[in-house]
Structures are given as C-alpha cells and as structure tokens.
Amino acid sequence: MIFNRLGRTGLKVSRIGLGMMSYGSNRFQSWVLPSAEGERFVKLALDRGVNFFDTSDFYSLGQSEACLGRAAAKLTARSNVVIATKVGMPVGPRPSDRGLSRKHIMTAIDASLRRLKTDYVDLYQLHNPDPETPIEETIEAMHDVVRAGKARYIGASNYPAWELALANRTAQVRHKLRFASTQAEYNLTFREEERETIPMCAAEGIGVLVYSPLARGWLAGNRLRPRGLTKREKSRAQGDMKARTNYGSDHDRRIAGRLAEVAAKRDVPPARMALAWLLARPAVSSIICGVLEPSHLDEAVAATELTLSAREIALLEELYEPQKLKDIHAPITRSGERPA
Questions:
Q1: Alpha helix (H) ranges present in the chain?
Q2: Given this structure, which CATH class describes domain 3-317?
Q3: Looking at the predicted structure, is the pLDDT value of residue 214 above 90?
Q4: Which residues are catalytic?
Q5: Domain spans of the chain?
Q6: pTM above 0.85?
C-alpha cells in the first residue's frame, strides 16, 4: 500500500480508505451490514495495508463508530490506524442533537470517543455546513477539541469552496489552525469539484478525500448489469435512494459505457480503472471506498497499481458535460439519504 500526506500535514494515510457507513444497522439503510461483518472488513482492510478508516456519529446513529472502535481495539495498536469521524448531522430528536454549535460539538466528540474506544481521533470533520451557527463559534469549539488532545487534525465534508475557504481562513487567523482535508463527491460522472474546490484545496494545501468514487455503483457496472450482482450488491442497488436520485442519466450511461470500453482494452474491471483515474489526480489524498464484498476491497487496492496512459485519461474524460450542482443543503432525513 502506498501512503500519501493528508494535504500539507505530516499525517500519512493509505491511498485507499475504508468507509464505515456500510456497517452498523440496517435500520439506518436497508443495505447496511451488521457490526460483526464490519469488524471482518476492518481486518481485511488492515491485512491489505489500509490504515485510514472514515466514519461518522450519524452512520447507524453511532453503531458504525462502535463497530470501528471494537475492531481497531481488537486487531491492532491505536498508533497503526488513522481514525476519522464527523460531527453535525442529526443524532437525536432534540435541537441540540445536531449542527455545529459549541454545545453540540463538545458533547459529540466525547460520545464519539467513547464509541471508538480511544482518547483521540486523528481527523475530526464538520459533516456539512450549518447555516444557523456562526463559523467563528464552530472554529472556537474545534480549536478547543484539538487543544484538549481529543483530535489531532480538523477537516470538513460537503463544503462548497467559498465556505471551506472562509472556515480555513477563520481558523488560521484566530488560532493558526488549518483544515487538513475536505471530503468531496468526485468521480468520472460528477466532476464539478474541479471548478473551484479542488483548485482551492491544491493552492491551500488541503487534502481531498473522495467519497462516491464509483458513482454509488454506476461506474462498476452494478446498475447496468443487475443480473450479475451479489445479494449484497443487489440490496444496495435497490435500497440506495441517493444512487437513484443522483445517478443514472443518459450522460452517466454514456460515461459508464466509455469506461467499460477503455477498461476492456486493458483487460481490467471498470471499477479498477475508475478508481485509478481518481488516484492520478494530484490533489487527492485518499479514496474512501464503501465495501460490501471482499472483491470490492481487492479491486480498490489493485487500482493503486494501475497507471493510465494520457490517451486513456483523455478518452475517459472527453464525454463529460457540466452538471447541475447537487443541493447539499437539502433537508436531511433520519433515513440518511444526505449526505454521505
């Protein structure tokens, strides 16, 4: 496994990270695997050299964090893993059970640490912007979390470029604190982050952590050949409402078709080539992969050894058309459809 610096920090993360949203409770999403399966996949990831694990207090309302905490404590030393979690999404019925207020952040970090069975997280991330809390209040709370030793670095997720820039500048001016990373939806069918977010991150030394790298299965062919799916893949294909909402247009089908053609010429699976394309992006520190089958993890790791030619990259990119930006501020339900 190859390791990258997370942005401009000294923290090293594996180029492939394991996304823990897939494990916890199927009450969160119908396709989510039970915690015992999650622990199995953490072991498989560790065996393949993965050191980066990403979760959130929102995923299965804490059960995803608990799954990771049990697995990491059982399987390896704390210093061997980079644990990232998030704060801000609804985790209860009360008004203070969500958002990025000081009250919620200070309560949420302690709850996350208990579930993760650790006294610190390596990366504590703002899950999505909170328009009801001044960014100064949020930054003050995140700074205190770092000063208390409960987090080593801070990051963001689903932030538009202007809001990430504002947050990062506020942290720098007030506390000489920098955002280490941001999580962004990024793949061959959705490249809108190339407009502003990725160039800004490259200029500021903020690492980019990619989620939905396979367009929630579209780029693996999982939606174009349903008869070939495993039971778990079929469950996600049928139950993943976000996949149906965000992907599947004629534009997406054309790109998936082109990907399949180019991959066939190299005799590699489309998923491996799609991930290799992302790994070739200089600003990308790591790709967060949701894994339901061991083969998914194997393909992700194999992608780190696949180098694409300039001609292949040009063929994969030439059909792309600018997309209507997805509304990351849309109302959020307890079912977990927004965001990842």
A1: 35-47, 63-75, 102-116, 135-147, 161-175, 197-204, 231-239, 241-246, 250-266, 270-279, 294-303, 310-317
A2: alpha beta
A3: yes
A4: 59
A5: 3-317
A6: yes
